[in-house]
Write a structure and sequence with these properties.
372 residues; alpha+beta; Rossmann fold; 2 domains; four-stranded antiparallel beta sheet; 24% helix
Length: 372
């Protein structure tokens, strides 16, 4: 999919926009909004040289599993016998198993870390503080990065590569602090129309970035620095049947694209410690039918949880939040399995990995969409 499905967008916006007439008076041209041009995937530098690992067989699904102890730290040294995989609560055979540690990735492409500054959904001062927090992270450990790190910036003009992948954190931090490129958004509609605009723009570039990564082997950690886009969860909102079908197709395609790109999404943001919303947890279960599809199913924190990433509460120490996410690259396990035959298109399957050792927890993708 080189374009995002906007069929649900038009059907969805016609009804709730009426409720905002007193606040923002949305223009009538919204009803005939045409599809936006397909986003151009950002050009990223190739990774350093490596010995490619064998590609999984057609149809085989690969999972990256982080196992943590009670303190949340990744655990290494486990074996295949310690893992059990369930697909729709039924035992699934693990076809391949690989334990990966950051210090021993010479035979594989290194896990790559991308930090994205969300200037679309952040104010000007918040963007500046976020940039400072990222620079502080890059300077940790004397500036030595265990994995290649790049920095992207999302603005109303699109996705820009701010810093190319590098292991030199000090050089990256210097470039970031001295960057003169504009990070402020353009003027946009207020109220509901502005929220929909940010929602669409953000998701468009998540999809474009993931598609850009599909041909590139290796695991990718995408750390989204910002609270995320609006959830569009409004009282009395109604969505047509056609709109829900289009939204469901978009949920399926984005979930599949992120899995094929081997990309895990993380959510970090500045704010007062201990203050944050956890409403997203009501939507992290996979959507099985179009009738259940809602805009909230495409929220940042929902998607991050579904990919096996972390959703960290707001904190003024952004550098520590990012470092917490990057820990996932220090030790993890790569499993693969063959999905069972599907009875229908877009058949959702729950996934669960269990560890046969007390006190350990496995974190990975919580499901996938199977095809006939």
């Amino acid at each position: 999919m080189n374009r995002r499905n906007h069929a649900w967008y038009t059907a969805f916006i016609l009804l709730p926009a009426l409720a905002f007439t007193q606040q923002s008076a949305p223009p009538s041209t919204t009803e005939t909004q045409s599809e936006a041009p397909a986003p151009q995937a950002p050009a990223l530098n190739p990774r350093p040289g490596y010995t490619p690992a064998p590609a999984p067989q057609q149809g085989r699904i690969q999972l990256d599993v982080v196992v943590t102890d009670k303190s949340g730290k990744p655990v290494s040294g486990l074996e295949l016998k310690d893992f059990a995989l369930k697909d729709n609560n039924l035992p699934a055979k693990i076809i391949s198993f690989q334990a990966i540690e950051a210090a021993a990735q010479s035979s594989d492409p290194p896990t790559e870390v991308t930090v994205l500054i969300d200037a679309v959904n952040l104010g000007f001062q918040e963007v500046a503080r976020t940039r400072d927090g990222i620079a502080a992270f890059l300077r940790r450990n004397g500036g030595h990065q265990a994995q290649p790190v790049s920095v992207l910036v999302l603005t109303d003009d699109g996705l820009k590569v701010q810093l190319q992948p590098s292991l030199d954190g000090n050089a990256l931090a210097d470039q970031l602090v001295n960057s003169s490129s504009g990070l402020r958004s353009l003027a946009r509609s207020a109220g509901f129309n502005g929220a929909v605009e940010r929602y669409e723009l953000s998701l468009k570039w998540v999809d474009a970035l993931a598609r850009n990564e599909i041909p590139r082997p290796g695991r990718k950690l995408l750390i989204w620095a910002g609270p995320g886009w609006p959830l569009l969860d409004l009282p009395g909102m109604q969505i047509t049947d056609k709109g829900q079908l289009g939204m469901f197709n978009e949920i399926v395609e984005l979930s599949t694209t992120l899995r094929q790109a081997d990309m895990t999404l993380y959510s970090v943001s500045l704010g007062m410690p201990g203050i944050g919303t956890y409403l997203y947890k009501d939507f992290v279960k996979g959507v099985k039918t179009a009738e259940k599809a809602k805009p909230t199913n495409l929220g940042l924190k929902v998607i991050a949880t579904q990919t096996g990433g972390l959703v960290l509460p707001p904190d003024n120490d952004l550098a520590s939040q990012i470092a917490n996410c990057v820990q996932d690259a220090t030790a993890f396990y790569r499993l693969s399995f063959d999905p069972p035959p599907a009875d229908k298109a877009n058949e959702y399957h729950d996934l669960k990995v269990e560890i046969d050792k007390p006190g350990l927890t496995a974190r990975t993708r919580n499901g996938y969409y199977n095809q006939p």
